[in-house]
């Protein structure tokens, strides 16, 4: 519980530090700064978090393919897509002090981070893309995590047949500095195939954890009783829940 508060505080510190799109900043600088503020905090954090490798603009794949669901065939979604998603909301609910319902405009107004990372799909392909959006830690900081919160569950607008796509992660990954709610790929609004208007980037994990078409984030203390109980659409079908790259 203590540790989570420290992480949340650090998250706020980090997001305060960098607001310019395209600016690269390193977690190390922030950790060094935080260490000066409180050695205790640094000790509780242990080592600095493992960062996924970041790439340069020259490494960006010319085409970032889509995988899994690459379109949503409902009238509501098609109308939203055509008009720039004015009514799309990202809800933050469950074990939080202040449930949120964020418009895209509100999400774009938060401090932004841009990162160039490699996406690895278990089906045997990779692509490098530049993602922009607020850190999930910024959003969770606004909502305020209740001490019982252990997991973030990501709800999506698409499904396979009747089974909705969903994902989840623990708070270490949710508050990780490279975990973003991305609304841009390579400087443009997300294409439909890559999860418009919002998708998760959770860079230390495999492709299927990166939930697209995000509609809600639920903070829970257990994954039991959520869909198949495995913590994700693919996890309910046998994939690993912790899908480290
Ligand atoms: N909502 C949703 N998210 C999803 C999927 C999906 O089908 N629906 N597929 C997953 C898989 S297996 C991969 S590899 C990536 C693909 O992301 P991309 O379409 O941007 O390449 O999205 C992941 N997130
Ligand atoms: Mo995948």
Structure description:
The protein has about 240 residues and is an alpha+beta fold. The protein has one domain: Alpha-Beta Complex (Sulfite Oxidase, Chain A, domain 2), CATH 3.90.420.10. It has seven helices and eleven strands. The strands form three sheets. It has a five-stranded mixed sheet. A four-stranded antiparallel sheet has the order 3-4-8-9, with no helix packed on it. A hairpin with a 5-residue loop joins strand 1 (about 90-95) and strand 2 (about 100). Helix 1 crosses helix 2 (about 25-35) and helix 2 crosses helix 3. It is globular. The model is unreliable at about 1-45 (pLDDT under 50). The site of molybdenum atom has 6 residues, from loops. Molybdenum atom binds near residues 121, 122, 123, 207 and 208.
Compile the SSE list and pairings.
Elements (H helix, E strand, L loop, with lengths): L1 H16 L9 H11 L1 H7 L29 H9 L6 E5 L5 E3 L1 H6 L3 E9 L3 E9 L2 H8 L7 E10 L2 E8 H4 L4 E4 L1 E2 L2 E2 L9 E4 L11 E7 L25
Parallel strand pairs: 1-11
Antiparallel strand pairs: 1-2, 3-4, 4-8, 5-6, 5-11, 7-10, 8-9
Helix pairs in contact: 1-2, 1-6, 2-3
Bound molecules: the ligand Nc1nc2c(c(=O)[nH]1)N[C@H]1C(S)=C(S)[C@@H](COP(=O)(O)O)O[C@H]1N2 and molybdenum atom.
């Amino acid at each position: 519980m203590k540790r989570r508060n420290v992480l949340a505080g650090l998250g706020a510190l980090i997001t305060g530090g960098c607001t310019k799109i395209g600016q690269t900043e390193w977690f190390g600088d922030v950790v060094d700064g935080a260490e000066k503020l409180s050695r205790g905090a640094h000790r509780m954090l242990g080592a600095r978090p493992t960062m996924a490798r970041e790439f340069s603009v020259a490494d960006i794949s010319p085409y970032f393919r889509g995988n899994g669901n690459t379109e949503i065939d409902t009238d509501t979604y098609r109308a939203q897509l055509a008009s720039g998603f004015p009514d799309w909301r990202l809800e933050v609910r469950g074990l939080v002090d202040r449930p949120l319902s964020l418009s895209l405009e509100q999400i774009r107004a938060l401090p932004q981070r841009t990162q160039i990372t490699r996406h690895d799909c278990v089906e045997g392909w990779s692509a490098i893309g530049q993602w922009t959006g607020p850190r999930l830690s910024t959003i969770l900081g606004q909502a305020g995590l209740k001490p019982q919160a252990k997991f973030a569950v990501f709800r999506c607008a698409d499904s396979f047949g009747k089974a909705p796509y969903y994902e989840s992660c623990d708070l270490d990954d949710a508050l990780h500095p490279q975990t973003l709610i991305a609304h841009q790929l390579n400087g443009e609004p997300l294409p439909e195939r890559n999860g418009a208007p919002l998708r998760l980037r959770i860079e230390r994990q495999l492709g299927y954890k990166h939930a697209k078409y995000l509609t809600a984030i639920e903070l829970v203390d257990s994954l039991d009783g959520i869909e198949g109980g495995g913590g994700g659409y693919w996890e309910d079908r046998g994939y690993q829940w912790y899908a480290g790259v």
